[in-house]
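Researcher: Sit down with what I've pasted below and flag anything odd:
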Amino acid sequence: MSENSAQQMIVTMLAEGNPVWYVAAMVNMRSHDVYVIGKAAGYPDRTKLRRTVWARKQAQHLAA
């Protein structure tokens, strides 16, 4: 799994409401690393995270 797809999965899981510790266990990373990735995407504000996920999906859709 590439770093970018791992980051996308982390942001998506956080946007779905999963706690940082759970996401860290699922992707086999430290909680702090997951938090930093989430923070860059708007965590702990789940609305910002959802917008980030939505914008990424729209960009992929338009590029196809």
About this structure: The chain has one domain: 3-63. The radius of gyration is 11 Å. Residues 3-63 form one domain.
